[in-house]
Amino acid sequence: MTTTFLDIVKNCDNFPYPNEKIDEENLMLSTVPLLLNNVKIGLIPKTTISALKKYNEQHKKPYPFIIEDTFVTFASHLNTFEERTQIIKNLLITWREEKTFPALEGWRDELYPVYGPSNDIAFVIERSATPLFGVLTFGVHLSAYIRTPEGKLKMWIAKRSKTKPKWPGYLDNTVAGGIPYMLSTSETVVKEAMEEASLPAEIAEKAKPVGAITYFIVTKNGLQPEAEYVYDLELPIDVIPKPLDGEVECFYLWDIDEVKTHILANEFKPNCALVIIDFMIRHSIIKPENEPSYLEILSRLHRRFEFPAPTF
Amino acid sequence: MTTTFLDIVKNCDNFPYPNEKIDEENLMLSTVPLLLNNVKIGLIPKTTISALKKYNEQHKKPYPFIIEDTFVTFASHLNTFEERTQIIKNLLITWREEKTFPALEGWRDELYPVYGPSNDIAFVIERSATPLFGVLTFGVHLSAYIRTPEGKLKMWIAKRSKTKPKWPGYLDNTVAGGIPYMLSTSETVVKEAMEEASLPAEIAEKAKPVGAITYFIVTKNGLQPEAEYVYDLELPIDVIPKPLDGEVECFYLWDIDEVKTHILANEFKPNCALVIIDFMIRHSIIKPENEPSYLEILSRLHRRFEFPAPTF
């Protein structure tokens, strides 16, 4: 059967919706909320729970985590940002040493914020560990494009380096990156535009925020509800993105039909394909009259989460 | 407390989400799905159920509707488009004569399609009755705007006629209308652009489809899950929309700050405010860094429904 844009969206937004039945035997899809002051800030797959119980038992009482059938939360003596951050750090060092989770083999030494009630940061956590707790992560994705003198739109597509630990050799947006602790969305765009595409700040600052996609992907590493703020950047035709930090192998300048073909051939990193599908909807390339699943695609590109999110 | 864009969105997308508790005593929010071949095609508020039971009992057996605690569906002898359309028509004529529902006082004599499994049209129904069955309805909304010689964006805003039965005197998008049976989205745009704004086809055809908003509004008349396909149209500065069919009183050409002020003052028809909020996100006026509820707004503008939708 031919692959459709909806199939591509479902490859990425693949966590069951409330009306879809979850096989409770699947310990990855069967989850327990991570609470802070009764607010849900993560969705812990049951594959994490037994390791969390073991970690508790390696500790003297009071245990650091309260682990009930219907929720997990921090013990009451861990009630500050610093204390929560420290216990999560200790836990992850233990799990990394004991090789408890393959996810931690991709250790990045990057700290991601986890938002709590009132949008305060509840704690920060090593990036590679976020799927073990199903916490919402944030990134920016920039689509750079040109208009030819004939008015034709072409997109700058990155090819990920073959040495990247995740999705090596796959196609990617022109610039993309996670939003680390203490950076805003537009600061992240400017930083990543230089690191990944050699685009100087005076050009990257012209990128326009035009929305966000939100989706919930299940991978072998765990649960990843993600929000990617999307930026458009029309480049002059003589500005050529170039790899700088080794994360990108090369850039292609493709017309829309070429981009579509590579999306439908599953050659893009899944979430990057979604950013381009959103781009194509906003730029009237995908239309109500040529896409039978227009509404379903739009809804799945903007999945609603119950988690707190940042205010930049 | 100051009104926010999120408040404006919640005014319109006000049906509870799956994680929100519904007061079962509220017969409008307590619902029973309308099924066709086991596919949910509507969400009937319990305020409709007793009238539906009464209608059944006015009939000889076999009753036209199967009304169970957990679903409503058509009796098996009503298994074609024509038969379902006819029984709904007879039912509504009865209810209109008996003044069963205030919703039917706004009788429009316009037929709306209700989609069923495989995206076939299950039946058509008088427009004013759609909230009694919570069926998904479809419309187009066009935002016309100009750029001044200084590059400033101004939007054409319609003021609804004071004689309109719904939302008289409220502000509206430049052009908007329901998609009637047998018209496509772009045909509806062209038709409404002439009727409401005197814009000729050669101009209206330049409108670009740039997405859709989907939301679920509860009104005193019933339940309205709605999808509005959104179009942008940049007009030359010398093209002036003018009322034609009496539904619009006049047009204003406002800069963005004026538009924002009128939105936050609740002067727009609720769903039209949402179309402009979506416009402002796509045009980088509302940004991650100036809107704390950016992600929540985007998700609520693209609510996911389980109903079948058209393929134009």
TrEMBL record, chains A, B:
Name the chain's protein: NUDIX hydrolase domain-like protein
A single GO molecular function term of this UniProt record: 8-oxo-dGDP phosphatase activity
Q: Which InterPro entries match?
A: DUF4743, NUDIX_hydrolase-like_dom_sf, NUDIX_hydrolase_dom
Record keywords, A-Z: Hydrolase
Give the matching CDD domains.
NUDIX_Tnr3_like
Q: What is the lineage of its organism?
A: Eukaryota, Fungi, Fungi incertae sedis, Mucoromycota, Glomeromycotina
Q: Which domain of life is it from?
A: Eukaryota
Give the Nudix hydrolase domain ranges.
137-278
